[in-house]
Description:
Chains A, B: InterPro entries: ArsR-like_HTH, HTH_ArsR_DNA-bd_dom, HTH_Metal-responsive_Reg, WH-like_DNA-bd_sf, WH_DNA-bd_sf. Chains A, B: This is Metalloregulator ArsR/SmtB family transcription factor. Two copies of one chain form a homodimer. By secondary structure, chain A is of the alpha+beta class. The first copy, chain A, has two domains: 68 residues, Winged helix-like DNA-binding domain superfamily/Winged helix DNA-binding domain (Arc Repressor Mutant, subunit A); 131 residues, no CATH class. Chain A is built from eleven helices and eleven strands. In chain A, the strands form five sheets. A three-stranded antiparallel β-sheet of chain A has the order 1-3-2. In chain A, strands 4-5 form a two-stranded antiparallel ribbon. About 7% of the residues of chain A have low confidence. The interface between A and B is large, with 41 and 41 residues. Chain A binds a DNA duplex through α3 and α4.
Amino acid sequence: MFDRDLAPLATLIGDPARIAILAALAEGHALPAGELARRAGVHPATATGHLRRLVDGGLVVVHEQGRHRYHRLAGPRVAAVLEAMAQLAPATPVRSLRSVRAGKTLTEARTCYDHLAGRRGVELRDRLLEAGALRLIDDRDHELTPTGRRLVTVVGVDPHPLDRTRRVFARSCVDWTGRRPHLAGALPAALTHRLIELGWLTRAAGRGLRVAPDYDRRLDAWLSAP
Amino acid sequence: MFDRDLAPLATLIGDPARIAILAALAEGHALPAGELARRAGVHPATATGHLRRLVDGGLVVVHEQGRHRYHRLAGPRVAAVLEAMAQLAPATPVRSLRSVRAGKTLTEARTCYDHLAGRRGVELRDRLLEAGALRLIDDRDHELTPTGRRLVTVVGVDPHPLDRTRRVFARSCVDWTGRRPHLAGALPAALTHRLIELGWLTRAAGRGLRVAPDYDRRLDAWLSAP
DNA sequence: CGAACGCTTTGGTCCGGACCCAACTGTCGA
DNA sequence: TCGACAGTTGGGTCCGGACCAAAGCGTTCG
């Protein structure tokens, strides 16, 4: 069981800057190198070195995109190690009921910067595609169909100003908590903002979101609207 | 979720000698400092330093006993971290069915040096105490009652030579896999040896033991013997 | 009692690797 | 085409901490 050599992995993890990077990535989303350097409190050059070692060690994967290099955890097993460590980190053996509940809320629904993520985020994207409101235009970007434009208008989001912003409109965003993508960009941000306004979602502690009891019913009603 | 500071824990784990010590302790039993030094391949003085840091960090607990200092993992959460790391250590994503089965066998029954441990080891001690075959003489040492001497004789173990060895007779031995103790010492070693001879147990790969299909029935029959 | 043993403490050496600076490559937007 | 920006590479410094030798301390056993 423990005949494997843990030393390389242990030394890889065992550096303050690298564990800070891993912890940041454990939040779930992919982050560019500069941001990770900032969070770890080191010079970008230093972060580059650390990231290379983490990638070589198979703990992190990179996704090059223009002049950015987005990094995320290589898989749920890496996250499992970090979670096990988090369980142990402080000498506070009992986790309060409050934090346990928050943890559950977090995988259920949460914000990723400013848009809906977690299980509900994945679900929302699925439903919008299924309802024919969204259409994939390449392997990660989406656009609203005419049906979609009508639907978001119905719920109180004006699609026109969203077209004119520089921001990405609706792009797939994957994190390790769910293996499937949710949406990032101007559209999901506006939509999430509106759903909170309408009370379908409520802000909870931190990035958590509480889902209204009749959220499912409202979502069904909305997406089946003529 | 990850707002805890993982750096101290990570740097504590992230040393070749210390992870070797932890991996050795993850096997389950308590080990003296010298043995850990040998396994980690460092000088005893070096091991002492590492062990102090591990104890201070709450990953390991010591149990002083004469001129020995026995160390074991501080709890199942520490073991969980090591297990999560072991899942990740080599780039061998698939664990063979064989090793999975071995893992299960190991918690069910295994040898600890030369005596029965695992769930069946705990069970055996419980049953012997319950049957009045064993009696606690202090907080960790046991002796055979007259009933017990008769019982072990019935199963084919002669208790007399066991009294004359220098070895501890029957002492509680705790590891992290089960929170309850099993027995170490001359008696359990002889008993385990005999149960293997009788086919109640069979040696499996490594320290694993396979339990015969009719083990429970035989154990019941034996301990309820007049 | 004295010797052997297990372990710790102290003291001093030394090397790996973490860090930043500065220069360079590649990308984006005007 | 040019400047701003993201990130990497190479070079050089420096400090933490890993290591062992030797001495010290308590335990065990003859």
